[in-house]
Design a protein that fits this description.
Layout lengths: L1 H11 L2 E6 L2 E5 L11 H10 L3 E4 L5 E2 L16 H15 L7 H11 L16 E2 L27 H13 L4 E3 L6 H11 L4 E6 L8 H12 L2 E5 L3 E5 L7 H31 L15 H11 L5 H46 L15 H13 L4 E3 L6 H11 L4 E6 L4 H15 L2 E7 L4 E6 L18 H45 L2
Parallel strand pairs: 5-6, 6-7, 10-11
Antiparallel strand pairs: 1-2, 2-3, 3-4, 7-9, 8-9, 11-13, 12-13
Helix pairs in contact: 10-14
């Protein structure tokens, strides 16, 4: 709203006297000069006697009339406006101070970078219009950078947070609306970095096909800076710890060239001095200790040149190191899983030691096929059932089956197991522990039904508890351990597959390194 008020006063030459919501009331002033082209409209508005009312969301301005005496809506003279008329006119005649010292310095700096973006929608100062800067700059190249000794070139998390907080308070330096051809903007940013650590760039609103990611990548490539923030509104670039101003960079480059020339001259003078000496007797082998030739030989032998082959070797060595480290981590995790499986096996063995299955009676009752079909039909139609849950078979399940057999000859046991081997094992175990006869195992929609017949000579057991079976709590512990061991076995298989794949990749990378090594 402050920016809208400022634009309104600049465009109209009036004075905003009141702001209410999204409405601005503008006073035209006593020295307002009517436009000849719209004189009829202004003369009509003079007789209406209203102040100007401006809506921010529209571009229509209704000019009211302020004559010698202001008239309000009731047709009476408005003394308040009449008294303040002279004071307002006095303020209009005086030359105001344009901003603080900081704002004037920022405006002076931005004036040296390029033309301003006059349609800026936020607070002043107005940023530089980056779209008006030249697309190409002759002789432009990425600046030379040199990090001070003992300084890490990358930013730590605390430094990044501090720079983002600092950038939040800074004014916007540039307004950008195109994605490519940003050499002029890059040159202006380099000039700005000589005075400021951060360059704050706003993305223009309402321009089609703007891509802030492409803008940030191009600017980073041209300037060599660091992008510390990028979103749909702003791109903030940090100049970096290795940034050198233009004059300093040229001085450093010239100094390095001078040092190199001096080293070459010293080497040439040393060789001439060696040739001029007349050695008596057998000539000894020439020594290069402490010479420039030794330095060049060291670099040729140990420092890789910036070629495609050396870069490929570096990438292969890095990949080999990464694979070896990852393989070592996988092997360590596999050993941990194996130890956990051993502990789980020990816990299951301890639980199984307290359980012993019953012996099946040799004198079993035999049923005819007609009787089996009849009991099977009865069992399928039964509503009462025994649910075999995650605990499996324990003493409570056997007691519940005997409770059903107290009133009925057939019992239906429902199990949620999916594997046929597990279902048949549970059915045979129930037949042995209960002393009944297994009639059938039926497939239902989402489960299986085990139908058991108690027998013609059935007698209810004298003791209510079965000491050879697990209790309910022990059965739950067994179920948890079995599930835990199954999950760990699955992860062991997956880990072994990963180890085999890593070993295969490591062998391939090793062969590539051996092939490229001279």
């Amino acid at each position: 709203m402050d920016r809208a008020r400022e634009i309104l006063e600049i465009k109209t030459g009036g004075l905003v006297v009141w702001t209410k919501g999204d409405m601005h009331f503008v006073y035209r002033g006593s020295k307002y000069q009517q436009n000849a082209k719209h004189s009829h409209t202004f003369l009509t508005n003079v007789h209406k006697g209203y102040l100007v009312k401006h809506n921010v969301h529209t571009t229509l301005l209704k000019y009211g009339s302020i004559g010698p005496v202001l008239i309000n809506n009731y047709g009476e003279a408005d003394d308040a406006f009449q008294e303040n008329d002279q004071s307002i006119c006095g303020q209009k005649d005086e030359e105001p101070v344009k901003g603080t010292l900081y704002e004037r310095e920022v405006n002076r700096l931005l004036d040296t970078l390029g033309p301003r973006f006059v349609d800026w929608w936020w607070d002043t100062p107005l940023p530089v219009d980056a779209d008006l800067l030249p697309e190409f700059v002759p002789g432009f190249k990425t600046p030379y950078r040199l990090c001070p000794p003992g300084v890490r070139p990358t930013l730590a998390d605390e430094e990044l947070t501090y720079l983002r907080k600092l950038a939040r308070l800074l004014p916007t330096h540039f307004a950008l609306g195109r994605n490519t051809r940003l050499q002029g903007l890059a040159a202006a940013i380099l000039k700005l970095w000589e005075k400021s650590l951060i360059a704050k760039i706003a993305v223009k609103i309402g321009i089609q096909n703007t891509n802030n990611e492409q803008m940030a990548w191009n600017l980073k490539h041209l300037t060599g800076g660091t992008v510390i923030l990028r979103n749909k509104d702003f791109i903030i670039l940090y100049r970096g710890k290795d940034f050198l101003p233009g004059g300093v960079a040229q001085t450093v480059i010239q100094r390095e060239a001078q040092v190199h020339d001096e080293q070459v001259k010293e080497e040439e003078a040393r060789l001439k001095a060696v040739d001029s000496l007349q050695m008596v007797g057998e000539l000894s082998e020439e020594s290069s200790l402490g010479t420039f030739r030794e330095y060049q030989g060291f670099h040729a032998k140990f420092v890789h040149e910036n070629t495609e082959n050396s870069n490929t070797m570096i990438e292969l060595e890095a990949e080999k190191y990464r694979l070896e480290k990852e393989l070592k981590d996988h092997e360590w995790k596999l050993s941990v899983l194996n130890k956990k499986i051993e502990r789980s096996n020990q816990a299951l063995a301890k639980l199984h030691s307290s359980w012993s299955p019953s012996e099946q009676s040799a004198d079993r009752e035999h049923l005819t096929e007609e009787e089996k079909i009849m009991f099977r039909r009865i069992g399928r139609k039964m509503d009462g059932l025994v649910l075999l849950g995650r605990r499996g078979i324990f003493d409570g399940v056997i007691e519940e089956i005997h409770q059903h057999w107290k009133h009925k000859e057939v019992v239906k046991v429902i199990t949620k197991q999916n594997q046929t081997r597990q279902i048949m094992y549970a059915a045979s175990l129930l037949e042995v522990e209960t002393g009944g006869i297994l009639i059938a195992v039926e497939k239902l929609t989402t489960s299986h039904a085990i139908i058991l017949y108690r027998g013609k000579n059935y007698r209810r057991p004298a003791k209510s508890s079965f000491s050879n079976l697990l209790t309910k709590r022990e059965a739950l512990r067994r179920s948890i351990e079995v599930q835990r061991r199954g999950s760990m076995k699955y992860f062991v298989r997956e880990r072994q597959k990963s180890i085999l794949e890593l070993k295969r990749k490591l062998r391939y990378v090793t062969r590539q390194i051996r092939y490229r090594t001279p």
